[in-house]
Amino acid sequence: MNAAFVVFLLFLLVVVGTLLFHILSPWWFTPLASNWSSIDNAILITFWVVGFVFLALGGFMVYCLWKYRHQRNRKAEYKPEDKKLELILTVVSAIAVVGLLAPGLSVWGDYIKVPKGAVKVEVLGYQWGWNYRLAGEDGVLGTTSIHNISDENPYGLDLNDPNGKDDLMVQDADLHLQIDIPVEFLLRAIDVLHNFYVPEFRAKMDMVPGLVTYYWIIPTKTGEYEILCAELCGTGHYAMFGTVIVEEESDYTNWLAQQITFESALAQNKIKNKTIQLAENTK
Amino acid sequence: MSDEHDYKIEAKAYTTSSSGAAASSDERPDEQELYHSKSWWTTYVFSQDAKYIGVQYLCASTAIAVLALVLSVLMRVQLAYPDLNVLSPSAYYQAITMHGMIMVIFFLTALFLGGFGNLLIPLMCGARDMVFPFVNMLSFWIFLLSLLVLVASYFVPGGPTGAGWTLYPPQSITAGTPGNLWGLVLMLVSIVLFVVGFTMGGLNYVITVLQARTRGMTLMRLPLSVWGIFVATIIALLAFPALLVAGLMLLLDTVLGTSFYMPAIIAVSNFGKEVTTDGGSPILFQHLFWFFGHPEVYIVALPAFGIVSDLISVHARKNIFGYRMMVWAIVAIAALSFIVWAHHMFVAGMNPWFGFFFAITTLLIAIPTGIKMYNWVLTLWRGDIHFTVPMLFTLGFFITFLNGGLTGMFMGNVGTDIALSDTYFVVAHFHFTIGIAPVLVVFGALYHWFPLMTGRMLNEGLGKLHFWITFIGAYAIYFPMHYQGLQGVPRRYYEMYDSIYASSTGLNEFITIVTIVVAVSQLIFFYNVINSAIRGEKSKRNPWKANSLEWQTPTMPPKHGNWNKLPVVYRWPYDFSVPGADKDYIPQNVPPSQVRRAKVEKT
């Protein structure tokens, strides 16, 4: 066994090992729980295309290593250019690029186009946790401004906007969603960048203070899914957990009934403040 | 085809030398004025000789990279063995920030452009030195100052910034991030200094390539190493100003409380005050940062591409396949690199219609990059492959970059990026492309050009050992990370708790152990460098039987001024195994009259 054979063998091992690892890997997508099977498919198509290119080029390199290794009396070919071959390879690469772009762009086209009638859910990110706000019976979320935010008004709702009065405030890290109903997440952040990411939904988007960003999904499988922040947001970034609970209609309605509206929260606060005031006065 | 033309150059060159007695030296148009040092200090420390400055850059950037390497080992230990508590969350985020910034800017950019640029450009172009030696010296000393400022951030209150190397505001400024005042200020000052220093060097590299090439060295006869470094320097000169501006405005937001990037937010900022800014745009910073940041990828990659082309050709004893396409591919990649930046921001909340445009431009880059991959492997085809240490590193680069380039098709395509962005898939992808791949080229280049610096060869056995541990180890570290990313493991997490995404804990431990092995094995390399520099085998004049001019100097290593009489160039640097020639290589300065029987196709 000479040195050239060892080199050949080790590089062959790397190329074959890459393929085997891919096939045998126990680490793979989490089971999909949303409508975004098209994202998985686009990734799988890309795997097929790039996997083929990897094996073709890597395999060809390994073949050349053995076939054209230095031996006595070997002389390399002298051929500076081959215009025809270079043209063919360029055209083939261009076709592959178009083939990859097609599924990718079509997924993105769907991703940014929210279907009509999707339930609007506001997600509010802060250092380091999540709050949510749902439209009340009127189905419309009230307007907000960061300047209105206070202890009594944690979402910064506009007090003069009647649409906001019946908004449901979910000041909790858990969000419930009803299965098979399209949801549009309206993403806000009050301090720094965050990103609302649920691996099982495959979807994510940054939350930017000063903007309302969005994406939409249809939850397709009941269960509890972890929410992860996917944009570095300070020392607590890794601990910014929450849970999405996807459930059937009856469970969802029960949960919805327990949530309080902005108006009643304000009223409760008023009573509380009044009590505090009275207590202070009687002192 | 242009043989006739070359005989004319040759004839002219002979006339010049034969009438040399009559023409005084300052009448010769191609002679360069040269600074001569007078003392030990100005020769070795405040040196104005590009070769010395190149070595200074290599040493300084490698020294800071050792810090980055140690930080990466600490991070891996923290990830695999959280119970050991080697890092606090703050220290972990400071480590990722310093590691990223050092590796991208202070190590790879400085090493390829400052290090190999200085070492190779004058020698390969057939110049005596850079055109502005004094400015070139200043460039290095300002770079060194920027390193000192960067390291100083470990010694100020709060420590270095922990905002991630991307330094995204508002997070980099607000109190939830470590080092949000002094650490951030020092980081930004250090970057500003780096850009100033780099600009001085960069102007030198570009003007030397354009103005100081020797007689007969046309642009299309330059070795691809010079092409890579030359084009990378041009894009760096255009891209770094964006970083400079982004950094200066961030500095104003940090120190003076301006609102370039800061919207109205509810957070505590520097000095423990509520933030009272309003109207700024965090996304503006991201656009400016990536307008620099994406070309930066090619500032590192293009010199690596160029150097690999030369190594593969010399050690396979075959001309680089498709030289002209290789040059145009470098130029095309450089041009495209300026219109792809927002693929780093597909899920950043920018206008969603940008996604279509930037996905298309990004995947277009795959075409010129693909051409380079094909041409490298076609250079091996029907070659005479010598498994020298530089060749091994080149092959390692090829496999690594092939893998990393192909996973770029997932990241650059907007639809697939949604799921994979901000996961370990990204970490794996960019470490393959601009981490491991260029570093393998750096090692290959050092084994190849070490004689130019010291006049001695590096030990080959140790070199091979170093290669196999580094290449297989690095591959085993980063390849499995793609699959953690598919699973959804987010990047920049200090700890995964008992999250279901922590199910790859066993894999994490494996990666960490390999990381420690690879990190420690770099001692083999450092031992080899130090030992060989002192008592290594003396190098012959042209140890690899290469064609390019850096090996044709009268002494090894080359002296101050490089040549006695400037060489005249008659051919491209890839005349290997030319049919009819006596030897399997014809150096660039060999006139056609000396190899009359060689059937040269390209000149």
Helix-strand blueprint:
The complex is a heterodimer of chains A (283) and B (603).
Chain A (H helix, E strand, L loop, with lengths): L2 H22 L12 H31 L15 H29 L7 E8 L2 E6 L33 E3 L3 E5 L4 E7 L4 E4 L8 E2 L5 E5 L5 E7 L12 E6 L1 H9 L2 E2 H21 L1
Parallel strand pairs in A: 1-5, 4-10
Antiparallel strand pairs in A: 1-2, 2-3, 3-11, 5-8, 6-7, 6-9, 9-10
Helix pairs in contact in A: 1-2, 2-3
Chain B lengths: L2 H16 L21 H6 L4 H31 L8 H37 L7 H20 L29 H30 L12 H32 L26 H34 L7 H14 L17 H11 L1 H15 L8 H23 L2 H7 L3 H31 L5 H19 L2 H7 L17 H31 L68
Question: How is this structure best described in words?
Answer:
The complex is a heterodimer of chains A (283) and B (603). Helix content of chain A is 40%, strand content 19%. Chain A is an alpha+beta fold and 283 residues long. Chain A has 2 domains: 3-68 and 84-111, no CATH class; 119-275, Cupredoxins -  blue copper proteins (Immunoglobulin-like, Sandwich). In chain A, a hairpin with a 2-residue loop joins strand 1 and strand 2. The radius of gyration of chain A is 28 Å and the shape is elongated. Chain B has 603 residues and is mainly α. Chain B has helices at 3-18, 40-45, 50-80, 89-125, 133-152, 182-211, 224-255, 282-315, 323-336, 354-364, 366-380, 389-411, 414-420, 424-454, 460-478, 481-487, 505-535. Chains A and B meet through helix 1, helix 2, helix 3, strand 7 and strand 9 of A and helix 4, helix 9, helix 10, helix 11 and helix 12 of B.
